[in-house]
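Subject: two folds for Thursday's group meeting

Dear M.,

Sorry for the delay on this. The cluster queue was jammed most of the week, so I only got both jobs back this morning. I'm pasting them in the order they finished. Each block is the input sequence followed by the predicted C-alpha cells. Could you check whether the formatting survives your parser before we put anything on slides? The first protein is the one we discussed after the seminar.
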Amino acid sequence: MTVISSTKNPEALSLVIVAEFDAAVHRVWQIWEDPRQLERWWGPPTYPATFSRYEFTPGGEASYYMTGPEGEKANGWWRITDIQAPHRLEFDEGFADDNGAPVEAMGAAHVTVTLEGIGVRTRMAVQSEFESAEQMNTMMEMGMEEGMREAAGQIDAILAEQSVA
C-alpha cells in the first residue's frame, strides 16, 4: 500500500494523506496534470472519476463526476489556485449540482498537494483544509478519509506503466 499516513487534525480543520511511490517526482506530477491519468485514480475503485473539463493552469477550472456501483453520479469541481510544477498544486474543491454549479451548502475545501523527491522515490502529501468543524465532520462521515486512501492505493499501477512524454 502506498499510503503511509492519514492524519485528521480537528483543531486545524485538516486531513493530510501521505503516500510514497517508487517513481520520480516528474512522473508522479503527471498523474495530476494529465486528466486521463487523474481519472484512473481520483476516487475510490468503486467510484471512478470522469473529468469533463480540466484546465490545468492557475485560475483554471475542472469539472468531474464519480460513478458509483449502481450508476449513481456524484459531481465535483475544482478551481486551481496555484501550480509550481512539479512540486506543488493547490486548488479549491467541492460538490457540484447536475449542471456543474457548486453546491454552496456543502462548502469548499482547499487542497494542497506537495511532491518531494526522496532518492528515486517520491513522497506525496495531500492536505485538505475545511471551512468549519461541521463541514469536516460531514466529509469524514461520508467516508472521505477512506476514499482518499483507496484512491491513492490505485496510483502504483499507473506509475508502473511507461512514463508519458
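Second protein, same layout:
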Amino acid sequence: MGNTAVVVGGGIGGLAAAIGLHRIGWDVTILERSPVLEDAGAGISLAANGLRALDELGVGGAVRDASRGQYTGGTRTPRGGRLTRMDGSALEKAVGTPIMGIPRSTLHRLLREHLPAGSLEVDTEVTAVEQVGPGTVRVDCGTTALEADLVVAADGIGSAVRSRVLPGHPGPVYSGSTVLRAITEHAVDVRADFELTWGRGAEFGHIAFLDGRAEWHAVLSLPAGTRFADPLTELRRRFRTWHDPVLALLDATRPEAVLHHDVNELRAPLPAYTVGRIALLGDAAHAMTPNLGQGACQALEDAVTLAAALGAESTVETALARYDAERRPRSQAVAGAARQAGRMGQRLSHPLAVTLRNTAMRLTPSRAATRMILRHHVWVPPSLN
C-alpha cells in the first residue's frame, strides 16, 4: 500500500484527517484555497463522540484544556419559561465527559499545531482531481499537479471534488433557515453554560467560553439570501421582548463580528463516500443542519475511521470500502435526525404546534431526554495505535 495523501480543505475535518493519516505513517499535504486562515465561524460544541475522536488523534487533552464544560442551561421559551434543563453532570457520568464549548478559531489552531511543519498549503485552489492509474490520483492546482495514493475531499458543503466525482448528485439545498452568529467582545454574565430559546420561527442560543466571553447565534426562518443592512439592529428589534441575556449578548458584540450564513444541507444522501481512491469526508459527504450540534463531531469520526481503516487494511481499496461501510449509515442517520430536530424546534411557527411541542418537552423526564442525547454521543473510536 502506498502512503501519500492529498487532503483538499483545511477545515476541521480536513485537518483531523491529515493528523490521523500522519499518525499511521502517511505523508500528507493539505490544500486550502483561502489565502488567509481566518478561522471563520464563532463557537462550537463538542460532544463525547467528537472528543473521543480528538483523543485518538492526540489532540483531546489540549482541546479540553481550552474548552468550557456545559453543565448548566437547557431550552427555554422567549419569556424565559423552562422547557428542558441541562444535566451536564448526568451526561458526564454516562459518557465520561460533558459537552465542551470552544471558539472555532481555537480548535482550528490546536489542530494545526499537531500537523507536521509545512504540510498545510494555503491560497491553493484545486481545479481538477483525476484517477490516472490503478493506484494514483492526480490533483491539479492551477499550473501545479500533485500525485498521491489517496485524495481526501474535505472541501465543505459546496465541495468541488464531490461535484466532479459524483456529477449526478443534486448537491446542497437550502434548509429554510438562516443563521447570524458572533462571539462577544468581552465577558458576559450569561449564568448558563449553554442555552437555546425557541420562539415561533426563530431560535436564539449561546455557548459560554472559558474566558467568560460567549458565542451567540440567532436562527430565523426566512427566504434564502435574506440579508440585513444592520444585522445587530435588526436582531435587537426581533428579540426585543426575549428574556435575558439575549439583548446583553447582542449589546456586547461588535457589528463587524457578526457572521450571516444560510443553512444548507445535503438532503439527498450520497450513494457512496468513496470513488476510486478518492474519499469524501465531513460536510463534503454529509453536510447536515446544526440542530444536534453533530456536524463537526461527525467529521472527526470520519477522520479517525478513515485513518484506522487505512492502517489496518492491506490495500487502499479495501480500506476505503471499510470506511464507506462504517461511516455512511451512521452519519446519514445523524443527518436525518438533525433535520427532524430542526422541524420540531425553531422551524415550528403555528401556535398550536408550538404549544404541543412545549408541553411534550416539559413532560419528558430528564432521564429520557439524556437517553435521547446519548443516542448520538455514544461512539467508540477505532484505534490508531
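Two things I noticed about the second structure. The first helix runs from residue 12 to 23. The two ends are 18 Å apart (CA to CA).

Cheers,
T.
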